[in-house]
Amino acid sequence: MTGNPYLLTPLAIARAVRELGDVFTWTFDVPGGFAFQPGQFNMLYVHGVGEVPISISGDPAHPELLVHTIRAVGQVTRVMDRLAQGDVLGVRGPYGSAWPVDEIKGRDVLVIAGGLGLAPLRPAILRLLAQRADYGRVTVLYGARSPEDLLFRDELARWRGRFDVRLEAIVDRAGRDWFGPVGVVTRLIDGVPVGHDDAVLICGPEIMMRFVARELERRGVAPDRIWISMERSMKCGVGLCGHCQLAGSFVCKDGPVYRFDRIAPYLQVREL
Amino acid sequence: MDELEPSFKTHPFLVDLEPAHAQLVADCATRVQFRTGDLLIREGEREHTLYLILRGTITVEVTRPGGAPVCVETIGAGDVLGVAQLTPATAHLDCRARETVAALAVDNAALQRTMDADPRFGYAIATRMLARTYHRLARVRLQQLDIYR
Fold first, then answer.
1. Residue B25, domain member (yes or no)
2. Closest CA to B14 of B79, B69, B68, B85
3. What does the pLDDT look like over B58-93, one tens digit per residue?
4. What is the DSSP letter of B110?
5. Domains held by chain A: number
6. Residue B58 sits in a domain of what CATH number?
7. A134 Cβ contact partners less than 8 Å away, ≥ 6 residues apart
8. Helix, strand, or coil here: B74?
9. Banded pLDDT at A63 (limits 50, 70, 90)
10. ipTM (interface predicted TM)
């Protein structure tokens, strides 16, 4: 945003929305625009507390609105959870690799999200839908813990109401007021057409992504047609500090989005 | 068998079965239908039937004292219910029709007698059941990890 990757830009929270019990979405107004590619992240700094990497969950067609969806799980994000409209944070970015939304034009696209993994995929989904004619069949599969834990519920309903995208959601457990399927997200793959040339974008817990990729390979999807978004302890955001090193790559610079065939061998190395 | 033939040709559990073996399963099977809310299997009761689901959705539920039932899995067309019940056992969960369900109900005792009498047939059925049990176990393990938390 500033040209200097280390320099923070102070931004005030313009809107704060409670998504789930421990998940919230912030919108920052950036009149000059904040250009980013779907899948990239920013480093958000809470003054005197610390800095954390957070994926951008906004619409790339609206760079004047910088959007982040955050789960309060660590020291910094728990403090963030107590901030409100008008509070100022330091922002630097965007960093990292992006979902290959241009490269996969013309192909059928399968998007598979688990839990909060829908947030980093949201910009890619919005891009696919905004340029719908450029892609073949678009399918979104989403797994969550329970119906109450589904993220972006209103938006999911809107996507489901469209005739040019298929959305399926599954939860781990539910009461009788849930009429969708119950089970793991891999089950949804059985119910949708999958071609060997489909492009597949996956984001969610690493265990889920491994299982999903394995299931896709069983269905004939080549590993070089699959992209996943990795998460590691990112500190500097520019590939210098080494905190997020994964074998010969730095997740903050070479990732977080990787083509699966390039990262798959490292996912099997337990020490990594 | 004539009445059951189309279902036997298309149900994933039976699709690769030798015709003679499919006939043996058909001899133990009847077509059944359940209405919304009907229990196919009730927790604590002996399971006598293996269901090959043709249409509709079934919820696998756990009941809690003083609380609403929790659905831990849904089963649908192409799935098998009662897969582990070739040996006499009691059900540990409720299985309830969430909508109208059509299924092939296979008499477990009759099926087991046929498997005992014809080991090749027994092996074909047992390997199918084992494969399904393994896949379901893998899913349950993943679910148990509570990965979205």
1. yes
2. B79
3. 999 998 888 888 999 999 999 998 865 566 678 888
4. H
5. 2
6. 2.60.120.10
7. A105, A106
8. strand
9. very high
10. 0.82
Answer yes or no: are the C-beta atoms of A198 and A221 closer than 8 Å.
yes
Question: Same domain for A203 and A72?
Answer: no
Report how far residue A184's alpha carbon sits from residue A173's, in angstroms, rounded to the nearest whole number: 10
- Closest Cβ–Cβ partner in A174, A181, A205 for B147: A205
Global pTM reads 0.89
**Phi and psi for B66 in degrees, rounded to 5?**
75, 5
Residues A125 and A84 in one domain: no
H/E segment holding residue A5: none
- Is residue A77 in some structural domain? yes
Structural tokens at position A109? 């696209």
Q: Determine phi and psi for B41, rounding to 5 degrees.
A: -135, 135
Interchain proximity A211–B148, CB inside 8 Å? no
Contact B147 A208 (CB under 8 A): yes
Pair (A75, A131) in one structural domain: no
Q: How many CB pairs under 8 A join A and B?
A: 61
Secondary structure E strands in chain B: 29-34, 39-41, 49-55, 58-64, 67-75, 80-81, 94-97, 101-107
Q: How far is CA A223 from CA A96, A136, A166, A201, in A?
A: 21, 20, 23, 11
Question: How far apart are the C-alpha atoms of B43 and B62, rounded to whole Å?
Answer: 9
Q: Residue B59: which domain range?
A: 6-143
N residues, chain A: 272
Which CATH number is A202's domain given?
3.40.50.80
Tell me, yes or no, if A184 comes closer than 8 A to chain B by beta carbon.
Answer: yes
Range of the domain at A51: 9-95
